[in-house]
Design goal:
This is Glycosyltransferase 2-like domain-containing protein. One of its GO terms (biological process) is cell wall organization. GO terms for molecular function: glycosyltransferase activity. InterPro entries: Glyco_trans_2-like, Nucleotide-diphossugar_trans. By secondary structure, the protein is mainly alpha-helical. The protein has a domain of about 140 residues. The protein is about 65% helix and about 0% strand. It is built from ten helices and no strands. The radius of gyration is 26 Å and the shape is globular.
Length: about 270
């Protein structure tokens, strides 16, 4: 990103090839995805602090400067995480406990749906997943908001660089195939006829090493306290909304609270040892 911005400020133009597809491996566990998103939102905020003077003094057009500062940095990496976190995780549930406070329906429904449509427009096949996408993105706003603040103010976690753990496979079928190959190789290992004493000794040593190898224990689910705290707040607000006959708020708070609960208990994604 740093190289791309410096090239853009020096007048270089980029051509994006939309027909080119590149295979990649996505994070398999929530912990890996969480660290990846923290890095992707903390890094741009640090880059924004460093590049802002260069952007303002560059010779590119004013509208390009505005696009770079307002849309690329502030809107995507600062405003949207702040909006999602404060509105849906803090303000909305707290209004249920304050009778004088009231949020209009369009703030809760229309604005998030409109923003989601803008994100899904480039890939129409993702339209059926718009509801889980909204719920999960609101949940991830906690991580993104923390990353944004740490990167903007140079806090301790902004200097962490954790490489996303990879499992070396692209699908479940790859894992099954690898297991079958390993099983076949193990079953085919035997002592051939006429083997020498040294080969027999080597085979026994390999067998003993395999038997003495430590058993891989499945990782215990990690507990995320921030997500669990917000889950209890949202679920309590949903009960309050049900008692006060506010149907729209109830359904949103219920589903969002359950999503936070699943994430807080680390029940999303695979458990990688």
């Amino acid at each position: 990103m740093d190289i791309a911005i410096r090239a853009h400020l020096n007048g270089w133009k980029f051509i994006f090839l939309n027909d080119v597809k590149v295979l990649c491996e996505v994070p398999e566990s929530y912990e890996a995805y969480r660290k990846q998103q923290h890095r992707w939102h903390s890094g741009p905020m640090q880059l924004f602090r460093l590049c802002l003077p260069a952007i303002l003094t560059s010779k590119i057009a004013i509208w390009k400067k505005a696009n770079l500062i307002l849309l690329f940095f502030l809107l995507r990496k600062l405003i949207l995480p702040f909006y999602s976190f404060t509105l849906f995780c803090i303000i909305l549930p707290l209004t249920l406990f304050v009778p004088e406070a009231e949020l209009p329906v369009w703030v809760i429904c229309y604005v998030p749906v409109f923003m989601s449509f803008l994100n899904i427009l480039p890939s129409p096949k993702s339209f059926p997943f718009i509801v889980p996408y909204l719920l999960f993105e609101n949940t991830m706003s906690v991580t993104k908001f923390n990353a944004m603040v740490s990167g903007l103010f140079q806090l301790g976690s902004s200097n962490e660089w954790v490489v996303t753990k990879k499992a070396g496979r692209s699908s479940e079928s790859d894992l099954v195939a690898a297991t079958e190959r390993e099983s076949k190789v193990t079953n085919q290992q035997h002592i051939p006829r006429g083997a020498s004493q040294s080969e027999f000794t080597e085979y026994n040593e390999l067998k003993e090493q395999k038997e003495a190898a430590p058993i891989r224990i499945k990782k215990v689910n990690k507990i995320y306290r921030k997500e669990l705290t917000l889950a209890f707040l949202l679920l309590a607000a949903s009960v309050r909304s049900l008692l006060s006959s506010q149907g729209v708020h109830f359904y949103f708070l219920l589903f969002q609270g359950v999503t936070f609960l699943l994430v807080g208990l680390d029940l999303i994604g695979e458990q990688m040892s």
